[in-house]
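JOB MANIFEST
job_type = single_chain_structure
chain_count = 1
residues = 308
[input]
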Amino acid sequence: MTAGAKRSLVRCPAKVNLHLEVLGRRGDGYHEVRTLLAAVGVWDTLICEAADEGVTLEVEPAGVVPAGEDNLVVRAARELQRRSGTRLGARLILHKRIPVAGGMGGGSSNAAAALVALNHLWGVGAGSAELHAMASGLGADVPFFLVGGTAWGTGRGDELQALPDLPPWWVVLLPAQGPVSTAQVYASLNAPPLRPALPSPIYDWVRQGGELPLGSCRNDLEPAVMARFPDVRERLEALSSERSRLAMLSGSGGTVFALFADETGARACAGRCAGRGALVAPLLTREASRLRPLPGEETWKLPMSGSP
């Protein structure tokens, strides 16, 4: 990069769905969901350098995701340009560590980070409501990363209620051997037309607080993913045999995770699952997961997982 160039970087956390309930197919073709989202300490890094014009993206490792106009980072930059009317450009470098198409929201986190970083870099001054509207147009999970921490999502998952931070739990994550298509998973779900939500201990907890009823948490996409992807099923079975507080699929997969009360239990489990590419990370507080533009040259020293 050019010495002295105006630049910033943003660390992009991942997420897991501690609960994902599909209420049915809506008239607009989307699915109505109720989901409990939690940010986790597995990180991508987005570096943004101001340019006089144009938007370019480099991805490292090269080829892990496309770097063209269809990438959510580029789409986010274009949307911010369109909404703000700025003619400024940017050179973007994305370092990927979050498993791709693994149900951990990496692309959505990257898009949200691009909105935050470029809003700062270009001096656009977009407010939180405007950023949320842009994020929602980019994808159902993108707005969550503007909220961070723990949140309850309804509608497509983009109508969010921020919740108090959960206890300092840790997760062991086992990514799938290959990408899992969200569109294919929802298509194979064959969900019925939209139906009312039934009473649930999860809903009561969202309204009243207290201790999260982990025994009531579920992922309605799990059967569809398990049927299509035997390796994901095998990994979930491996985690289900551990003494964790919860073991389930995240989002539409293919990452599965187990929830532990502390780091010691999580690392012991990860040691037993070392041959499956286990990642260990904490659930993040809202402050720890907040997307923030950072100056400096410390990008390459940042860990791929763990606390910031």
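[summary]
DSSP finds ten helices and ten strands in the chain.
The CA atoms of residues 17 and 250 lie 5 Å apart.
exit_status = 0
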